[in-house]
Structures are given as C-alpha cells and as structure tokens.
Amino acid sequence: MKPDICNFFPIPDLFKTEHLLCIQPHPDDLEIGAGATVARLYRAGVNITWLTVTNGSAGTYDPSVNCTDLARTRRYETEKAAAILGANDLLWLNFPDGGNLPYEKARSSIAGAIRKTKPTAVLVCDPWLPYEAHSDHIRTGLAAAEAAFLSAIPYFCPENLEEGLTTHKVETVAFYYTAYPNTLIDASACWDSKLAAIDCHVSQFPPEKGKLLKRYLTEKAREQAESYNFELAEALKVLSPNHLHIFEPAWQC
Ligand SMILES: [Zn+2]
Questions:
Q1: CA distance 61 to 40
Q2: Model-level pTM?
Q3: Contact of 129 with 236, CB cutoff 8 Å
Q4: Per-residue pLDDT tens for 222-243?
Q5: Mean pLDDT score, 65-86
Q6: In whole angstroms, what separates CA 127 from the centre of its chain?
Q7: Cα 144 to middle of ligand 1, angstroms
Q8: pLDDT of 129-153, one tens digit each?
Q9: Ligand 1 centroid vs 98 CA: distance in angstroms?
Q10: Ligand 1: distance of its center to the CA of 132 in Å?
Q11: 57 alpha carbon – ligand 1 mean position (Å)
C-alpha cells in the first residue's frame, strides 16, 4: 500500500503540464534519461525549454583534446539532438564540466531560469540515485529540486529578484535516472527519435560505445514496459514540490 503522503499530495500528471523546463548536467543526459518523454510531450503541444548546466568540456579521456573546442562541439551536438526531440528554447549555463560545479551559483542560476521562464514543471536527473558518483549530476539534481521547491519564496536566492525577476511556483518536479520511479511513459512511438538524438553526440559515443548504450537502454525500456500495454517505456519519478521536504515516505510514492 502507498503511504498516505502520496494521496495527500496527489502525484501530478506530466501530460497536463503546459511548460516543461528540462534540465541536464551535461549535453546528452536528457536524451539518454528522458529523450522519448521530451519528444512525446513536445508532440503533445507542451512548451519545452532545455537548460544545460555545464558546457561538457570534460567529456573526453584524451588529454590532447582542446576543452573549448569540445564544449563548442557538444553544444552543436545538443542543438542537433534538440531539433530531433523538440525544443521551443535552449538555455545554457556554461559552468565548467568535470565535477567541480559550484553548488550555490548553480542553484541561483537554475532558480533564475525558473523565475525567468516560469515553467509549470521541471524535469531533472534524480540526485538521490544510489551509487551516482558524478557530483555534477548530484549537484544539478539537488539544485534544481531545491529551486523548484523554493523559487516561490522571495527570500530564496534573492539576487534573482534584485535582477528584476519575480518569484514563481512550480507545480511538478520529475526526475529521470531514478531508482524510485512512479510514472512509466509510453516511449514506443518516440524511441527511434531518442536513439537518433543520442547518435548526435558523436564526440561521446563512437559507434561501438553508442551501440552498446542504445542496446542497454532499449532492453531496459522493454523490461520496464512489460506489465503495461506498451512496448518500450521511460521510467520517471514525478512528484509535487510538496513532497520534497520532510516527508520521508515520499520516496515510495
Ligand atoms: Zn552527465
């Protein structure tokens, strides 16, 4: 049985949202974690804004690669992927990639983006994914969750207001890369688009690596869809901001 808190604050329906702010720590995370969901929502008429937190400049094992060139390449790859999945706007915070994301600055910038674009829902990587070792992911997810929860309060990141922005209340927070999903999105009709968007990230996924990633994602999507009437699924944790503070059973919702 679900804990009471799941009914006390109902789980929002992502398809009833009007404007989704999709946040990714690095160029490519959104495509891998929720590409089919983004495509489905865009095709359903939801206004989609992409927000990329770091510039992806550390996405290489080759020390001879120029970081500025790599960041430029990854931005281009993201623009191509976004054109496939759907985007009304692309925003870039351009923090340096590589695990040194300054938490408070990132949180302020994400809160600023929320207060500027006024989304009804925020989609971001789950910062509570067990064994997640990349701090860009943990900090981006937590900063976005905190900003979604607190951007309605004028005393939270007041520097945004000094810049002329106004407070904003987000209704829904959805997490990809989650270990505690409560919402399965039918990804079947948009799966090819998701894989094509991943293919845009040539700098990250040379053919063999890309093939393996896509095979893993497809097998997982098939397994997740098994008890439903669809073929492939993306699994998300969808909550209201009310769930994001003091209610320990929220992870079970
Ligand atoms: Zn990443």
A1: 34
A2: 0.96
A3: no
A4: 999 998 889 999 999 999 999 9
A5: 96
A6: 11
A7: 15
A8: 999 999 999 999 999 999 999 999 9
A9: 10
A10: 11
A11: 11
Confidence of residue 1 (pLDDT cuts 50, 70, 90): low
Q: Is the pLDDT of residue 218 over 80?
A: yes
Q: Is the pLDDT of residue 3 over 70?
A: no
Distance 54 CA to ligand 1 centre (A): 9
Q: Which CATH number fits domain 4-252: 2.120.10.30, 3.40.50.10320, 3.30.70.60, 3.30.210.10?
A: 3.40.50.10320
Side chain identity at residue 218, one-letter code: T
The residues placing their C-beta within 5 Å of ligand 1, an ion, are: 25-26, 29
